[in-house]
Backbone:
């Protein structure tokens, strides 16, 4: 097993453990909480699956980007919410029910929305885009839906066991994530840094900042809902984005580096946003 594959496996295990741990502390009515707010759900879908692809296309037209960065931005714009998002949301005081429910619903919806959006992009571009619903479903089910459902099931059947193991599993997943991320930075940072220039860094910052602003604006009057939707709109699932990019542009060698660059930008800009939200003491800013 290569070092790159080992890092990817560690990240995937960390994601699965994190989602499972949240399921151990969640409730099945979290999804119903989101479904009971059709207006908020509609705005969330519009922000994540309609507006962000348009933003990505606009950014690629404005900046003279390298192919790897432009391709990655398009792929990231149509990838669903990452499974690690609820951890960031709840630390900011956001509604756990909205965060977890939105993660589950948008994850399932991406099985349909990603292939449809790819087909639309392919129709209006010189390069045809394609990725099967089965491929998307496999990633979403394995990385988000099944771990969350397993945690919810364990909570329902063995609540005392769930209460005992939730925190240890979450802590192990955090340690594994940090270790894998550090190794990824050491290995991938030189290649990612080589992409900086020709507006690449500015384009990534603009993409994340636009997602935060759009989600915050469409989140409605509740400050916590705004925080959840802002992070959900700005964040993307790197594994699905990389799969889309590589499936359609297998000869482009720097796609992985572009995804790493996005993760670094998303981390810095996202935590800057969270710091501002915390300073506002949960106010509607």
Residues:
């Amino acid at each position: 097993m290569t070092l790159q594959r080992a890092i990817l496996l560690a990240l995937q295990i960390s994601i699965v453990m994190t989602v499972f741990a949240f399921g151990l502390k969640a409730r099945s009515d979290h999804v119903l909480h989101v479904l009971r707010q059709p207006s908020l759900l509609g705005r969330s879908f519009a922000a994540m699956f309609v507006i962000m692809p348009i933003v990505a296309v606009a950014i690629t037209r404005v900046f003279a980007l390298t192919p790897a960065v432009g391709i990655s931005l398009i792929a990231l714009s149509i990838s669903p919410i990452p499974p690690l998002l609820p951890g960031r949301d709840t630390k900011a005081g956001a509604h756990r029910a909205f965060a977890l429910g939105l993660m589950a619903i948008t994850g399932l919806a991406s099985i349909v929305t990603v292939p449809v959006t790819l087909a639309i992009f392919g129709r209006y571009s010189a390069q045809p885009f394609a990725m099967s619903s089965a491929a998307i479903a496999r990633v979403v089910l394995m990385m988000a839906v099944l771990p969350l459902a397993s945690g919810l099931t364990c909570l329902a059947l063995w609540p005392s066991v769930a209460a005992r193991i939730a925190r240890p599993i979450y802590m192990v997943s955090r340690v594994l994530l940090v270790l894998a991320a550090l190794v990824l930075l050491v290995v991938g940072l030189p290649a990612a840094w080589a992409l900086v220039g020709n507006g690449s860094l500015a384009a990534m910052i603009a993409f994340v900042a636009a997602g935060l602003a759009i989600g915050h604006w469409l989140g409605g009057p509740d400050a916590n809902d705004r925080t959840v939707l802002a992070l959900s709109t700005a964040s993307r699932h790197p594994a699905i984005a990389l799969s889309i990019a590589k499936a359609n542009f297998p000869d482009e060698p720097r796609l992985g580096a572009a995804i790493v660059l996005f993760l670094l930008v998303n981390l810095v800009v996202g935590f800057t946003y969270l710091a501002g939200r915390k300073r506002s003491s949960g106010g509607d800013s």
